[in-house]
Amino acid sequence: MTPYFTAISFINFFTLVMMIISIIGNSSISYFQRSNFLKTCITVFVICVMEILTMYLDEAPVKWRWLHILSNFIGFSITPLILVFLGNALRPYKSKSFKILIIFWGIYVIWMIVTLAMGNRKSVFYVDSNNKYYRAEGFSIHIVVYSFNLIYFFMENIFLSIRFWQNNKILLFANFIFAMTGNMIQVLYPEIQITWVCSIISILIYYLYYSSLYQGLDMQTYLLNYTSFDRWRRMQKKDVVLVIVEIDNFTKLKLNYSREQIDKILVSVSRLFNDFYKKYGRCYRISSEEFCVVIDDTKLDVELLNKQFFIEVAKYNFDIPDLPLVSIGYALLAPKEDINIVFSSADVKKRAFMKERIGFLY
Predict the structure, then answer these.
(1) If residue 293 lies in a helix (H) or strand (E), which one and from where to where?
(2) What b-and-e string marks burial along 268-289, b requiring 16 or more CB atoms within 10 Å of the CB?
(3) Dihedral through CA 170, CA 173, CA 175, CA 176, nearest 10?
(4) Rounded distance, CA 324 to CA 315, Å?
(5) Where are the beta strands (DSSP E) in 3-154?
(6) How far is CA 30 from CA 55, 137, 219, in A?
(7) I want to staple 39 with a disulfide (CB 3.0 to 4.6 A). Which of 85, 131, 150, 233 is the partner?
(8) Tens place of pLDDT for every residue, the chain, 362 residues?
């Protein structure tokens, strides 16, 4: 190995080990998310080991040809999984596309095994009788599979930026472009071996971003939490409209229904709330049964929006006898204004809303 590749390999392994230790000890993200980040790092670690093996075994004694083929096969076969695991880690739950991608990957691996067993040059790579590695005719298939997973990963980036109303979409897409560019350079110029160092840096940025993001989220509803709301309040620079939505008779519901049913009600209302209001502003969960949205457009017809949202909740099927209703209030919130006074003003509107809301259904 060249000194350059030795240094790159050291950086790769050191960074991956530190990331694995950090991920294992991270309690701010769920087990599902930790496991996908771990799978991503372990997959890259294995590929880096296989890459070193293939470099040592290229044109080595013929007796090692089988190991040369095996190490190349492992490296090429699991490479597409990196984007699948990392894309899955960017969601709070398993993506519906995950099973489809795994099936697609399985077909790709079977194709590789069959073409390698046939001993021709139709696979991704070819190792000749002198134990020399070549890219084979099927290398373009590998690029197609990898590109397909890259598109999936790009869509997950879009989902992440839209779902959580973050202001740093540029960071996500710049990081995506950085990783993609690093991969494409080595495809076009195999002697420039920067694919994995670029990928590892990109994974590290995603992991740090994701951990920071989830510290500001309510882990039950995946809305922004009160800490995020308080942080935004300290940075507020202009007047906004604060809309507060409360689930009525929540204490009574907790007495009459199981914890599982209560959790289902909360999650259902939070999803309705987020789906309806996210196009107007940032959505928060500020207490066990209260949600709020910060709307920048102070000229918006908020009363009409609130009426429409109430109707959506009333029409939703919660599968319980006692239909959960919501009361909604709003108030203008200026920078540095006492938040308790604003909450009180919203409560006044909320009580007025409760008197009028039944008429909204007819």
Answers:
(1) strand 290-295
(2) bbbebbbebbbebbbbbbbeeb
(3) 180
(4) 10
(5) 125-127, 133-135
(6) 38, 42, 8
(7) 85
(8) 677 778 888 899 999 999 999 999 887 777 888 899 999 999 999 999 999 999 888 888 889 999 999 999 999 999 999 989 988 887 767 777 888 889 999 999 999 999 988 877 888 998 888 899 888 888 889 989 988 888 888 888 777 777 665 556 777 788 888 888 887 887 788 777 788 888 899 899 888 888 887 788 887 888 889 998 999 999 999 999 999 999 988 888 888 888 888 888 888 899 999 989 988 988 999 988 899 999 999 999 999 999 999 988 888 877 777 777 889 999 999 998 999 999 999 999 998 888 887 776 65
Rounded distance between C-alpha atoms, residue 241 and residue 130, angstroms: 73
Distance of CA 205 to the CA centre of its chain: 13
Give the closest residue to 233 by CA, choosing from 165, 166, 294.
Answer: 294
Q: Name the DSSP class of 238.
A: S
Token pair of 268 as six digits = 């259902």
DSSP designation for 137: T
Tell me the longest C-alpha to C-alpha distance in the chain.
87
92: enclosing H helix or E strand: none
* CA distance linking residue 76 with residue 109, whole number of Å: 9
Q: CA 86 to CA 98: how far, in whole Å?
A: 11
In the chain, the amino acid numbered 156 is E
Helix (H) / strand (E) element for 126: namely strand 125-127
Q: 321 in helix, strand or coil? A: coil
